[in-house]
């Protein structure tokens, strides 16, 4: 698959007409913030790998490549909405986090169309738009991967 993105950063593909990206490296990790016309997306990673148990989490697929995730949304202050995604992100990190803040439900829908996760699994890759991650749950439903269980076991296909 050929990935065409206006900006490709930390495994996220942005296809909006105008985006501004800022990345910070703080030694043991990174943070990235991409601002679109109607939304802000934040992600990051550290050298400390945390893996949650995604065996019962919903999954979203594109072109036969799937990810498991937990999405939770809440009002953002001073106004708007924020959705947080915990994602098993094959090919990038075992357990990734994404936050999308938008001024309205319409702006959040725009982010869902313009922002995709680039995933690889079993030799295949695909762009999975955030709009495909459409099941919302309580963020606290995700437990840690049980001790002694491999990360792959906590991330079933």
Give me some keywords for this one.
single chain; 157 residues; mainly beta; seven-stranded antiparallel β-sheet; four-stranded antiparallel β-sheet; 11 strands; 6% helix; 48% strand; globular
Describe this protein's structure.
The protein has one helix spanning 105-114, and strands at residues 7-9, 12-14, 19-25, 29-36, 39-46, 59-62, 65-75, 81-89, 93-102, 115-121, 124-129. With 157 residues, the protein is mainly beta. The chain has a seven-stranded antiparallel beta sheet with strand order 3-4-5-9-8-7-6, with helices on one face. Strands 1-2-10-11 form a four-stranded antiparallel beta sheet. A hairpin with a 2-residue loop joins strand 6 and strand 7 (65-75). The longest helix is centred in the last third of the chain and has 10 residues, at 105-114. The protein is globular, with a radius of gyration of 15 Å. The two termini are 20 Å apart. The model has no long low-confidence stretch (mean pLDDT 84).
Describe the structure in brief:
With 157 residues, this protein is mainly β. The protein is built from one helix and eleven strands; from the N terminus they run βββββββββαββ. The chain has a seven-stranded antiparallel beta sheet with strand order 3-4-5-9-8-7-6, with helices on one face.
Give the strand tally: 11
Count of individual helical segments: 1
Estimate the global geometry from the Cα principal axes.
globular
Low-confidence parts, pLDDT < 50 over ≥5 residues?
none
Residue share in helix: under 10%
Coarse structural class? mainly beta
Strand order of the largest sheet: 3-4-5-9-8-7-6
Rounded to an integer in angstroms, the radius of gyration calculated over CA atoms is 15 Å
Distance between the termini: 20 Å
SSE order:
EEEEEEEEEHEE
Main beta-sheet strand count, sense and barrel state: 7 strands, antiparallel
Write down the overall mean pLDDT. 84
Strand content: over 45%
């Amino acid at each position: 698959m050929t990935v065409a993105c206006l900006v490709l950063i930390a495994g996220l593909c942005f296809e909006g007409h105008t985006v501004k990206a800022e990345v910070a490296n703080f030694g043991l990790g990174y943070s990235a913030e991409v601002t679109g016309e109607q939304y802000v997306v934040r992600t990051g990673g550290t050298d400390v790998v945390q893996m949650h148990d995604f065996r019962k989490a919903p999954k979203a697929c594109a072109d036969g490549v799937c990810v498991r995730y937990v999405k939770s949304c809440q009002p953002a202050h001073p106004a708007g909405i924020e959705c947080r995604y915990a994602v098993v992100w094959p090919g990038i990190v075992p357990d990734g986090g994404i936050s999308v803040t938008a001024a309205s439900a319409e702006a959040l829908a725009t982010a869902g169309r313009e922002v995709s996760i680039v995933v690889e699994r079993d030799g295949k890759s695909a762009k999975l738009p955030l709009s495909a991650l459409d099941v919302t749950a309580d963020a606290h439903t995700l437990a840690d991967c049980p001790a002694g269980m491999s990360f792959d076991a906590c991330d079933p296909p």
